[in-house]
Amino acid sequence: MHIATNSDQIDISIEKKTQKLAQKFQEKLKIGDVVFLEGEMGVGKTTFIKYLINYFQKKNKIKLSEVTSPTFNLLNEYKIDRIQIYHYDLFRIKTFKDLKNLDLFANNSNSITLIEWPQIIQKKPRNCIELKFTYSEDFKKRFIKIKGINL
């Protein structure tokens, strides 16, 4: 089933649509992928990541984790079979020097890296997938635009 191309804007206003999209997205991710998730606060980035990680866990028959935003600790890690998932939230990172100390892309040979608030990153990795979350003008609907992968 075709859900998205690189240019489609997808309505994810209904949570079930977010779940379904996260499942399709999970099926396409590969070890070494880096996913940038951009969008305003509350638009659905962490919710999408929660469903994404939970689908990885279901697929590997692992107990589902409570997935929360790592706003204060900057990083949550999930070990799923032989895959390490790194979930970063860079909202509180203010300088490039602080970012360098995190060593974001050092261990991506057996991992998938998910980064909320990636705007401070000056150079995108070549295997970067971008998800842009937006609200409608009246804030009643939410959308996601995907760049770097076809679903």
Features:
151 residues; alpha/beta; Rossmann fold; seven-stranded mixed sheet; 3 helices; globular
Can you list the strand order of the major beta sheet? Answer: 1-7-6-2-5-4-3
Low-confidence stretches: none
Count of β-strands: 7
The top-level CATH class is Alpha Beta
| Tally of separate domains | 1
Order of helices and strands: EHEHEEHEEE
Helical run tally: 3
Task: Report the biggest beta sheet as strand number plus sense, adding barrel if it closes.
Answer: 7 strands, mixed
Rg from Cα = 15 Å
Instruction: Compute the average pLDDT.
Output: 89
Q: In angstroms, what separates the terminal alpha carbons?
A: 8 Å
Helix/strand structural class: alpha/beta
- The percentage helix is 10-25%
User: What would the principal axes of the Cα set say about the shape?
Assistant: globular
CATH homologous superfamily grouping: P-loop containing nucleotide triphosphate hydrolases
Strand content: 25-35%
Would you give the CATH topology? Rossmann fold
CATH-scheme architecture:
3-Layer(aba) Sandwich
Quick summary:
The protein is α/β, with parallel strands linked by helices and 151 residues long. Helix content is 24%, strand content 27%. α1 packs across α2.
List the helices and strands and how they pair.
Elements (H helix, E strand, L loop, with lengths): L8 E3 L3 H14 L5 E5 L6 H15 L15 E6 L2 E7 L6 H7 L8 E6 L11 E8 L6 E6 L4
Parallel strand pairs: 2-5, 2-6, 4-5
Antiparallel strand pairs: 1-7, 3-4, 6-7
Helix pairs in contact: 1-2
